[in-house]
Write a structure and sequence with these properties.
The chain has 259 residues and is an alpha/beta fold. 17% of the residues lie in helices and 19% in strands. The strands form two sheets. Strands 2-1-3-9-4 form a five-stranded mixed β-sheet. A four-stranded mixed β-sheet has the order 6-7-5-8. α1 links the parallel β1 and β2. The radius of gyration is 35 Å and the shape is elongated. It starts with 9 loop residues before the first strand and ends in a 24-residue tail after the last helix.
Length: 259
């Protein structure tokens, strides 16, 4: 290897709330010689990171620009409202958007729910980040509606959350630039789609893993002539059912002399 050559590696971007640990573990088991580097990015930064080549693929939130990126949807998250533990919402199992109509609902600039019109009453100013909004909820300023993974990510002992039954959901996808679908990207696609290590979809397995077809026409070999179909033993009269080809003659006694 020359000084200009680099060992292969795979860079995976991921946005807040997404946990790539399971897929990283499978990658390390299947491709131990190819390091996987995680690149933490915000949801807003993810498209530029992928477009600029700072990551080979990313676990991002939909939508993405489908004229530039390929995307495989993975799952959709439950949307929840984060409230102080002494809030009335904490006493129920779930709420609707209408149940929040009288509350101030914070709408951070990095919101990923994608409301056409957020529920509740708007705050005077929009928090810059979800983390800032969590601090305001803890201070009693308002409530916050986020995907459940973000509520868990920003967990605090003085806060809790409940599902919002009629809220839009945030979907997570594996995405990469369409023009940069490399072999390593195909490998990671196979992992997130649950393909087995022996699957031939995506990449062609190395020659050692390809099964050889048995050569046809062994019947004419020397082995076949030694007591197998076509040998002298078979010609001596055994049919496929194991019976003699020629029927046995009935037993006769000795002829009697005439007196």
């Amino acid at each position: 290897m020359t000084g200009s050559e680099e060992s292969p590696s795979f860079r995976l971007a991921y946005v807040p709330g997404v946990t790539p640990a399971k897929w990283v573990r499978i990658w390390n088991e299947r491709l131990p010689d190819v390091p996987l580097h995680l690149v933490a990015v915000s949801a807003a930064e993810a498209p530029d990171v992928l477009r600029g080549g700072s990551a080979d693929a990313g676990l991002v939130r939909l939508p993405v620009d489908r004229t530039v990126f390929s995307a495989i949807p993975l799952y959709a998250e439950t949307t929840v409202v984060v409230v102080p533990k002494d809030h009335v919402v904490a006493a129920v199992d779930e709420v609707s958007a209408d149940d929040l109509a009288d509350d101030i609902v914070l709408h951070p600039l990095d919101d990923v729910v994608g409301w056409e019109r957020p529920p509740g009453r708007p705050a005077i100013e929009r928090p810059a980040t979800t983390a800032d909004a969590i601090e305001l909820v803890a201070a009693g300023v308002g409530l916050l509606v986020v995907p459940q993974s973000l509520a868990r990510l920003h967990h605090r002992r003085d806060l809790t959350y409940r599902p919002v039954t009629d809220a839009p959901q945030s979907s997570v996808a594996l995405s990469w630039p369409e023009e940069a679908t490399t072999d390593l990207v195909e490998d990671f696609i196979g992992i997130v789609r649950g393909r087995t290590v022996n699957s031939t979809r995506g990449r062609t397995p190395p020659p050692a893993q390809q099964k050889r077809k048995p050569a046809a026409g062994k019947a004419g070999s020397g082995k076949a002539g030694a007591g197998k179909p076509g040998s002298g033993k078979a010609a001596a009269g055994k049919n496929p059912r194991g019976r003699s080809a020629a029927p046995k003659a009935g037993k006769r006694g000795k002829p009697r002399r005439r007196s």
